[in-house]
Amino acid sequence: MPTLRTLCLAFSAGMLLVAVSPQTVAQDVTADQLREVLHFHAPFDGAADAKVAEGDRSILTAESLARKTLTPGIHREHAKIAPGEGRFGDCLRFTGRTDQVLCYPGTAMHYADKDWSGSVSFWMKLTPDTDLPAGYCDPLQITQKAWNDGAFFVDFDKDLPRDFRLGTFSDLLFWNPENIEWDKWPIEKRPMVTVHKPPFVKTEWTHVAFTFQNINSADKSPATAILYLNGKSQGELKQPMKFTWEKQHVVIMLGIEYVGDLDDLMIFRRALTEKEVQFLATSKESL
Questions:
Q1: How far apart are CA 125 and CA 132, in angstroms?
Q2: Helix, coil or strand: residue 65
Q3: Staple 99 to which of 64, 187, 241, 245, CB 3.0 to 4.6 Å?
Q4: Within 13 Å of residue 216, how many CA atoms lie on the same side as its CB?
Q5: What pLDDT digit, counting tens, does each position of 44-71 carry?
């Protein structure tokens, strides 16, 4: 049984015994608390350049996933700022597919080579089964090399009805040292959290967040990654994870094969708690 802490107060008239429960009552989350750990923020209000970032805040356009050339600004076909259409203010709207990719430089992403934790938060609005072109779709992918080599991504599967997934892929040689073909990996062993029948609809904004903790652990203990939709946990991965990045070569890519709206992208320097994610999902205004 749990013990109770006791506080004894002596008075001249006698002794008063007060029992206090050891359970800690969590304080309410505030926007100021989250701003203290905010590493990157692109609200997409008026422009796509970041409001908060380390170094260059410019959005970039790559000619393709190969990223051989990066040009400042939005030059991607079928992508624009949509005034007044965002979850808060304006938003970034994708209206068709193209090989071009919008991205931010690696300094926008928090990274540590030991005991690394962080969080990513943003909003999306679309009906996946009717709005997306055929094939896989990655609204967000963060990597230095490829989707399966030191990468985070959220994607919609290619098959109807479309599943929504969080991929947390360590260095390729760490999670797949034998280089087994992807199609031969058992689904239950893939480093992904999968949501069947996700709640996305074109008439409402859906909040997406994922947190990660203890990646590149100094003692090789398991890391944890959790996917949230509208403030509710959809599942987690718990296993050792290793990401080896050179930040100058990392990119945060947006809108790969995506058709829909995206708003209020934020990256935090630690893993947010469930209550903090719920705060973001229910807030009436952006940070």
A1: 12
A2: coil
A3: 64
A4: 13
A5: 999 999 999 988 899 999 999 999 999 9
- Whose structure tokens read 């990719």? 101
CA distance 116 to 273: 15
Rounded CA separation 55/278 (Å): 29
User: Which CATH fold topology does 29-282 show?
Assistant: Jelly Rolls (2.60.120)
The three-class DSSP label of residue 209 is strand
E strands, the chain, are 5-11, 14-20, 38-42, 60-62, 70-72, 79-82, 91-94, 101-105, 116-125, 137-146, 149-156, 164-169, 192-195, 206-215, 223-229, 232-239, 251-256, 260-268
| pTM value surpassing 0.70 | yes
* Helix (H/G/I), strand (E/B), else coil: 195: strand
Characterize 161-185 residue by residue with b for buried, 16 or more Cβ atoms within 10 angstroms of its Cβ, and e for exposed: ebbbbbbbbbbeeebbeeeeeeeee
Type and span of the H or E element at 275: helix 274-282
Tell me the domain boundaries of the chain: 29-282
* 3-state SS class at 32: helix
d(CA 232, CA 254) in angstroms, rounded, equals 23
Give the tens place of pLDDT for each residue, 239-272.
999 999 999 999 999 999 999 999 999 999 999 9
Return the closest-CA partner of residue 198 out of 124, 287, 142: 124
The gap between the terminal CA atoms of the chain, to the nearest Å, is 42
